[in-house]
Amino acid sequence: MGEQPVIVAEHIGKHFNGFQALDDVSLTVSRGERVVVCGPSGSGKSTLIRCFNGLEAHDAGKLIVDGRAMAADSPHIRQLRQDVGMVFQQFNLFPHLTVLENLTIGPRRVRGMARREAEALARKYLERVRIPEQEGKRPDQLSGGQQQRVAIARALCMEPRVMLFDEPTSALDPEMIGEVLDVMVDLAQSGMTMVVVTHEMGFARKVADRMVFMEAGRIVEMSPPEEFFGHPRTERARVFLNQILGH
Amino acid sequence: MRAPRILGQRVVAVALYAAIMAALMWSAYAGAQGMGYNWQWYRVPKYLGSLTEDGFQAGEILTGLGVTIQLSLTAFALGTVLGAGVTALRLSGLVMGRAISVVYLELIRNIPLLVLLYLFYYVLGPIFDLGRWSAAILTLAVFHSALISEIFRAGIASVPRGQWEAAAAIGMSRAQAFAYITLPQSVRFMLPPLTGEAVHLIKSSAIVSVIAVAELTTVGRNIISDTYMSFEIWFTVAAVYLAVTLVLSFGISALERRITPT
Predict the structure, then answer these.
(1) Which residues of A touch B172 (CB under 8 A)?
(2) CA distance B12 to chain A (A)
(3) Cα–Cα distance between A194 and A210 in angstroms, integer?
(4) B175 inside domain
(5) pTM (two decimals)
(6) Which of A113, A203, A210, B127 shows the smallest number of beta carbons within 10 Å?
(7) Range of the domain at B208
């Protein structure tokens, strides 16, 4: 009997004012697994991973994260969120804090860690995302790529069991995408469980254990990357892949 | 329709402005002379203060100013607390909290300040045993709390939603996210309008002279009834208000430049 999966979504659904954002979505993510979610915009992929840490509340089905039921009104939602790291498209760093403070505020205020200990932890992860020299700067003094790497380090400082990435490179200038993806590849190779919403298919080929293709709130196709890129089963996935790889 | 081009030139514009102002001031002066007004500016300084052997003695106007400042500070502090409370209710997500705050805001915003003062002094005063001083402070605090709460709400709303999400994503409670993330960022949006509100409060504090609280305006009126120097004293009182509010505005904008990260 193996370990229990990190995320189990069973038939989950979500409405926004009559719009069906998620429709009967089931997905299981095992420990150490890397899942890449792709699909056209508005297909529900961001909504799906935002449900995984309770930023959105699903309104149908069952969602178990790290062995516990996840719902926006779960009494243990804060505990759950500490174990689920999130990286946003717009970085969402705290602009009034230095890089180091951005990293230590979670461990200190949420985990109650002492300052020195939290700073040591923060420096370890800044090293890991390869910007140890920027700790005294404010986010707006960094490039987009550096900001996103700080955001990854901030999530890692909570030592999560799974990392969620919501289009982490979509807001970046093209020349900065590589440095962020490199950090994510590193993280994948270290064995971190990851669910990544992205259109970076090169990254997906390199690290994904499984590809999930969504459209109109549903999972249309789910397969290993060789199969997904080599022989997509559905016409919609073929059209999508042609659009983003075709030129 | 556009003004003739010559009016747009700097020299012409300034000269024209100076000419119009001079004409207005001359006509006011001539009018005053014409009614035989007896200017006695030399009697004014002693109402501001005087130097004696024991050092500087504040005159009645400066003492009145002290009362105005004390009144304004107390009312502003209380108004800030009330405003924060109303904002908290409004953003609480509680049905009754929202309703109470909306009714409060509409009520206060739509009653004239003078009527509010009469309500506190002549109606609530006898019922709750409020003196002039308490009625004055409560009136100013309640009146300005509505505007202060609006400033708080706008300041909090100006922090992007992603900030709250990022705080929630690392496991912060709503209270922690507010204290460590939202509030520190909204302060710099709140400071300029709060300064404006403080200036507004100092000016509206003059209205409590109608219930004879011994602040700057009341003192001015008392001096005039003793000396009949209405022109000199009203000019002086206006200049004192102006000086205080200008110092406040410039002080706060200097502070703002210091705390705004560049």
Answers:
(1) 78, 106, 109-110
(2) 46
(3) 11
(4) yes
(5) 0.79
(6) B127
(7) 65-259
